[in-house]
Write a structure and sequence with these properties.
- InterPro entries: Tscrpt_reg_PadR_N (IPR005149), WH-like_DNA-bd_sf (IPR036388), WH_DNA-bd_sf (IPR036390).
- It comes from Aneurinibacillus aneurinilyticus ATCC 12856.
- This is Transcriptional regulator, PadR family.
- The structure is a single chain.
- The chain is mostly helical.
- The chain has three domains: 69 residues, Arc Repressor Mutant, subunit A (Orthogonal Bundle), CATH 1.10.10.10; 92 residues, Arc Repressor Mutant, subunit A (Orthogonal Bundle), CATH 1.10.10.10; 59 residues, no CATH class.
- 71% of the residues lie in helices and 8% in strands.
- The strands form two sheets. Strands 1-3-2 form a three-stranded antiparallel sheet.
- A hairpin with a 2-residue loop joins strand 2 and strand 3.
- Helix 1 packs across helix 11.
- The longest helix is centred in the C-terminal third of the chain and has 39 residues.
- The protein starts with a helix and ends with a helix.
Amino acid sequence: MPALKKQDILTILTHISRKDMNKQELLRILSDKIPNLTHLIDYLLSEEIILNKEGMFSITEKGLKKARHLYEKPPHRREKIKTKFTKRRGLIQLAILQLLKEEPRHGYQVMKLLEERSEGFYSPSAGTVYPALQDLLEKGLISVDEQTDKKVYTLNHDGLEFLSDIVHNEDEAFWEEWRLRLMWKQSKEAELLREEMGKFQLEFQYAMRGVLHDPSRALELVSIIKNGRNELINWSEQLVIKETSISEGRSSASADG
């Protein structure tokens, strides 16, 4: 994608992410900045990057991912593998590595154990588990023994080293956190947070482009970021106080009992 077109697309997505707007409003705001605006709007609609609902444009989840992809630099190979493990598919692959750390297993065993370790919350299918195993093979993190009736997968040295870099919990703690993360990633609250975070990242990168053209505005942007960070710090501190109070209340009630 040419650099100019890339920036034009990001500009459109940034404005639509701020609020839903109709085509006339978008043309009024951006037609002077983007000569081929109508063509780009049609492209974004056809690719489902933006959505036209009753005449109002809004950015889609695919659009937020597209914007993030356009802004981000291609990661180094090792960092790229680690980045993949932060996604839901990565959670499944991480759990598979943890299972293979215990002992070699075949695909059906992996599938049943994932369901068991999730305590019934997650029911994996062959269409999820076997492609995940194949992906881990291609990454060189596991090995397969095809001399038996069934393919038996084993965590190799690279896989163990990789797992040790990411997982620092004891086995029991790992599975508890894994269940919580799996539940969270599928929740409506997580979806809402991802959407707002995507919009924030889009807005921040748009602001950074402005700073590049006028470095004197950098201090203003720093101030905005500091204010937001301070609000997060205050929120986190209040959360800790609340959780401590609840924990102390439970301990007191237990002692009285």
